[in-house]
């Protein structure tokens, strides 16, 4: 990117192991340099992959822009269906709600189900209906089926951290002045 102008900073996003997440940020000194890089590099093939280069949009703006769309989802996480559940059974259970683009039961090394999987729908309404109707339904003796929006790992970790902090502050408030 130095061919387009002076770079003030650049960063490649990394996962928890230090590997690249496949994207990064380049902060140019001038808007002209940034525009030139977008014009020349966006859509290029780099190591056999098409590259997207665009203006940085802060998270708050992206979320505001998405608005209601951010609440829509097509990927569903399913758990508590037991060890004998197959990909075909998962598909059969969910296809009545709408067109499925993919489905996957996660398996152990011995070939038995790990008791969870994912279903991706074409239409967000189908995913919503499946969650509403199947979540809490009993399949395996004593275990209610969990069917909900599939979350990205970072999103899930953020939510767990928020819940943990909330519980911690509730405990502190509850026991304040007990000694």
TrEMBL record:
<dbReference type="GO" id="GO:0003723">
    <property type="term" value="F:RNA binding"/>
</dbReference>
<feature type="domain" description="RRM">
    <location>
        <begin position="74"/>
        <end position="152"/>
    </location>
</feature>
<dbReference type="InterPro" id="IPR035979">
    <property type="entry name" value="RBD_domain_sf"/>
</dbReference>
<dbReference type="Pfam" id="PF00076">
    <property type="entry name" value="RRM_1"/>
</dbReference>
<protein>
    <submittedName>
        <fullName>Polyadenylate-binding protein</fullName>
    </submittedName>
</protein>
<dbReference type="InterPro" id="IPR012677">
    <property type="entry name" value="Nucleotide-bd_a/b_plait_sf"/>
</dbReference>
<feature type="domain" description="RRM">
    <location>
        <begin position="1"/>
        <end position="58"/>
    </location>
</feature>
<dbReference type="InterPro" id="IPR000504">
    <property type="entry name" value="RRM_dom"/>
</dbReference>
<keyword id="KW-0677">Repeat</keyword>
<keyword id="KW-0694">RNA-binding</keyword>
């Amino acid at each position: 990117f130095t061919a387009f102008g002076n770079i003030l900073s650049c960063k490649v996003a990394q996962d928890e192991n230090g590997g690249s997440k496949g994207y990064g940020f380049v902060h140019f000194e001038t808007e002209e340099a940034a525009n030139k890089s977008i014009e020349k590099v966006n859509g290029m093939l780099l190591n056999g992959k098409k590259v997207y280069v665009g203006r940085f949009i802060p998270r708050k703006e992206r979320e505001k822009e998405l608005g209601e769309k951010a609440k829509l989802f097509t990927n569903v996480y399913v758990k508590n269906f037991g060890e004998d559940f197959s990909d075909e059974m998962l598909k059969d259970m969910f296809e009545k709600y709408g067109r499925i683009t993919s489905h996957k039961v996660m398996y152990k090394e011995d070939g038995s189900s790990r008791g969870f999987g994912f279903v991706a729908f074409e239409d967000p309404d189908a995913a919503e209906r499946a969650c509403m109707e199947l979540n809490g339904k009993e399949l395996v003796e004593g275990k209610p089926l969990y069917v909900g929006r599939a979350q990205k790992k970072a999103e899930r970790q953020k939510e767990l951290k928020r819940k943990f902090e909330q519980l911690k502050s509730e405990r502190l408030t509850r026991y304040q002045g007990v000694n």
